[in-house]
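Subject: CmpX

B.,
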Amino acid sequence: MRGTIVRTPVVAVELEQGIQDGVAAVTSFVPELLAFLVTLVGGTLVAKLLARSAGGSLRRVGFDKVVRRSRPGKALSTTTASPSDVVARVAFVVLVLFVLRSAFAVFGSNPFGELLASVLAFLPNVLVAGVIAVVAAALAAAARDIVATATRGTGVGGAAGTAAGGLVLAVGTFAALSQLQVAPRVVEGLYHAILALVVGSGIIAIGVGGIPPMRAQWEKGMRALGQEVQQRPPQEGTRSTRTPSAGTAGRRSSAPTVDVPAPQRDGG
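Prediction pasted inline below.
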């Protein structure tokens, strides 16, 4: 009986304290929730406006025409969206990630906010990797054209150009993967293995029996280049000077001459 009289007030006090804690938690959570919603909705609207204005600005400066003329733009020609729309959508997604990070920061430290912070910290690597990939594709196309043109008379111009372009593109791919930090040990090991394979194969092929064929192909290419230079038409404004040959000079000297008598003067 005595124990029951002692426990009842303790339970009532604990219940009352729990109710007060719950009300305080709800009261403190409601302003945070309102701030979260306002930040999310307002930030999304601002991000949409900024992305739309960025897409319109790119269209006005002719960004779509420039991209469509390039090789990556030709690959994207089958898509319905224009390049400026793609850039605008990517910008909108990135801005929404920043908005979400700011919105969840209202609740203090939380796992979702930390995840968004890590994603945003990784975005510069993605941007740099994308730039590396685009530059590598452009350099690969240029290397393919240059090598194919330089070795056009050797009979292996197409294969040499494709090999050069593929090599440049492979190096760019490995650089992009390294920037993204995707399996760095595997990527680095594979890169060194492929590089050693290419260099070793070239050394063995040239050192064992590739020098005479390479010399023959080089001479063939130089002869073809010389013939092409000789067959080029003369440029306008230039005159060809010819010296008279011996036969022409002989024909001119062998022409018959006629003696014309001089007029006589009168004696008177």
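The helical segments are 2-60, 63-69, 71-75, 83-104, 111-150, 157-180, 184-230, 246-253.

T.
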